[in-house]
Amino acid sequence: MTWLMRGLFIGVGSVSVVLGVIGMVLPLLPTTPFLLLAAYCFLKSSDRLYNKLIHSKGIGPYIQNYRSGKGIPVKTKIIALLVLWTSASFSILFFVPLFIVQALLFLIVGIVTYYILSLKTYRPNVKSSKNSSNKSPTVSSS
Q1: Interval 98-114: pLDDT, tens
Q2: pTM > 0.70
Q3: What's the domain range around 59?
Q4: Is 24 in the same domain as 45?
């Protein structure tokens, strides 16, 4: 790969990470496509940046679970939908004066909600001890 292509991939990947992180705060900016684009760009151009992205504390597990087909955790879905509907409702009620724009924003939020709910839900394995189900509660006598 030429240095120009490598630089282009690193540049696009870096911008995508910034937009993805901003998308975590601004719900109408899509987070997942930007983070996946960043992962692809870094995979093509820089093993160091790819590994740093994949192993980062906040973003890494999210990308790994999504890319491996495991899905998105319930907590992430709930937070995303709460932030999405809160900010959209606030915008519709207080900042957008035109009804047609309010309706369009409501439609977009509905579509994004459907998309989020249709994504596979990641459920990590719950560890439990073998004997915990066989134990009966103890009663102390006084």
Answers
A1: 999 999 999 999 998 99
A2: no
A3: 1-70
A4: yes
Buried b / exposed e over 37-48, threshold 16 CB at 10 Å, is bbbbbbbbbbee
- For Cα atoms 83, 88, 93, give the angle at the middle one, nearest 5 degrees: 130
* Gap between the terminal Cα atoms of the chain: 78
Domain-embedded: residue 133: no
Chain segment 116-132, per-residue pLDDT in tens: 899 898 887 755 444 44
Number of domains the chain is built from = 2
62 plus 5 within the same structural domain: yes
